[in-house]
Amino acid sequence: MAQESKSPIQLGFIGLSATGWATVALAPPLFEEPLSSKYSLVAVSTSKPESAAASAAKYSELASQSTGTSVTVKPYHGSAKHIASDMNVGMVAIAVKVLDHKEVASEVIKAGKDLFIEWPAGVRLVETKELYEAAKAKGIRTMIGFQSRFTAYALKAKEIIENGDLGKILSSTFIVSLTGFWGRLMPANYDYTLSSSNGATMLDIPGGHALDMFTHILGPISSLSAIIKNQFPLTTLTDSDGNPTSRTVPNDSPNQVCVTGTLANGALFTVHFQSPVKEADFNWIINGENGVLRIVDESDRTTKRGFFDATPDVYLNGEKVVVDADNSTRRTGLNWQAFANGDVSQYADLEQALKVKEILEAIVRSSEDGRRVEIQ
């Protein structure tokens, strides 16, 4: 049962600087109703004092405007323990590089504060498991930045399936092709994603987001067989304008991921992630005994990355279904709202993050061992 917070959640934010995902998509919904009545940003933390001061000034003004009262957001920098130990902070949001997830989140958990952390919530399964176990021992609430389950098309698909319009689910085919990343070229500031040991590959990041959405709608995966392949062992880094530099680095991250298997409900599934391609693709078909759901993006595929900016249409038995307008801030806003309302059936926590990591590890293990893997 949902347990809505009766007073605003006092939020501290690590990694909320002048630019980046947190500034563009995570923070803006917090300053608009209904979230401005459910959350109160009280502190920010960045790596340097100058950026912390600038961020605090910016969000003090935004918070004051949204509430109609004078609000002062505290600036912190350096170690996460500073903001985590602030007695006025009840929850801490983390939006930093995956390589820093465990260190930063551990300080928050030690302080006994509720936690929001962006996916992938630690490097590989081992770090996510350590964070999950620590948070469980402390009894704190956690939320993961799995915003894809809140896309308009995902919400509509879940509604249709739960209404029984398709009947028993028989199979699902999900194909996502991405442009730009994890190939011959890669932006220099993302070079860390080319090493599979850093847990930020195509499979880890977009693959993890997609598999959370996939299983949130269709249910758990019970077994799978997979083939993953790296077709670009050397990658040239590009500058801020997208031009190739003289720097070429090793790349051991997969750019092809093909998975087949069974869902817990007995349905069969196929998933194919690939990058880079000239034209992005997003094509998801869900077949049931009584109908078929087709979710496909038929817009200009040369200008899209293929998953995070997909705006697919939804068709039920060939008829187009009306879906709500969609954008990244709407999705993150719905995630924040589900947490504030205590709707644990809608938002993902560290336990769900652990389940997705177990799927990702099973995919790698299946490909390496050449065998089918059962998932508990």
Parts with pLDDT < 50 across at least 5 consecutive residues: none
- Helix percent reads 25-40%
The count of DSSP E runs of length 2 or more, i.e. the number of strands, is: 18
Name the beta content range.
25-35%
What series of H and E elements makes up the topology?
EHEHEHEHEHEHEEHEEEEEEEEEHHE
CATH class of the largest domain: Alpha Beta
Shape: globular
Write the CATH architecture name of the largest domain: 2-Layer Sandwich
What spatial order of strands do you see in the largest sheet? 17-16-15-14-7-13-12-9-18
Total domain modules: 2
End-to-end C-alpha gap: 26 Å
Which structural traits does this protein have?
376 residues, alpha/beta, Rossmann fold, Dihydrodipicolinate Reductase, domain 2, six-stranded parallel sheet, 18 strands
